[in-house]
User: What shape does this take?
Amino acid sequence: MRPPDVTIPAVVTLNACKLTGSGLKRQSKLYPNNQPRDYEAAFDADTLWYDAIQMRGGAVQLICPKLNNLTSSVRSAKWWIDERPTSLIRIRFYHRYDVIFLRASSWRVKQVTVMIGSWRGQSNVAQPQLQLFAGLNTVLTIQKNNRLDWITDFLRYHTHHHGLQGAILMDNGSTLYSPQSLQEILCQASLEATLVVSAPFKYGPHVQRLKKAVYEEKYLQCALLNIVRLRYLSKARAVLNCDIDELAHTPKTTVFDLCVRNPLSFVVLPCIWRYSHPMDPDPTRQAVHRFRHSSFLPELQHVKYCIAPKGPTSWLLWCWDIHWLSFPELGNSLVLRLFGYHYVNRIINYIFKRVSLIFYRQHTLRHCFSTSTGWKADRRQAPSNELILDIEWSAALDAVFCRSPQAVAKGISGETGNCTP
Assistant: This one.
């Protein structure tokens, strides 16, 4: 339980610093002649850091998009903390974001300032509030313009089947409603702790045919996962990292218990498509995604994970990535980065995935095909009519959501009712 004297703000804004007026900008690693149309518009060239956090021990961490060509300017810059000169300790490079460490001589600093040439930039500094989610089973997700009833159903499902106690929504600049509206939805879920983190930054370019080339250019989500980890989740019991259209299915246990019992306190969950029936009045709700392809082959996609922040993985310098964990890179040069990431990280995460898939084969995330805003691809209709009802999964949904009498009469999943199971 959260201590009674701990209060949660309705919406958290990050302590960002932009390069506006500096004459500097981040350069993409993809050569301009290889960039498709609108790539530059989606690329974050002007955010120097997303957030500034003072950690235990006094050091201030600046969580940045990949610095790329800005690294030398950062190393030669002048720094102040609360108007007192300070020094850069080091820069730690990860696959999709970088961290600047600054020396701090006092506790609870309030402001950090940087000078590059004649340009000055600054931001406030956050203090971790780890007691907000201490000991809680928590879900963490990034979202933009998802329907509010999708969010409600997502929370309701995980509360019923997995004992969800806390939730953090990282809102990437929704235009259909305010962050305060999201917080109201979270409050209605009757969880012990909830938080909305407002992050109206560029997500990064998404180009399907150049997926491998632009993979590192999507900086925001990975950086946000680790900002929230440092500020709020280091003492949580277990944290499920998944999207609104993904529902954890772990028969006879909860995803959080499964994670805590694992010797590594880390469980990988493969995602499996589930589809809604073409006759459903609202095929986008998670509750109507009860069908699978009749094909015998499994429809595995990417993986997500559940992690206990206080477990063995906290002993190393791993960061939370979107689909796995990542070690720091050995340096910012291309050769060292290729070696550090593509060999060490790939091998370790391959072992994690294979072990999890062998020993936890029946535990998955059910990826609801039509629960989507279509920002990445059109998923309004199932790609095939060869669908059969997943009886076990349908029963799990029925335990949470009610079907209308009209839908039952039609023999399809139909609308979700307002009854409480």
Notes: Residues 237-410 form one domain. The chain has a mean pLDDT of 86.
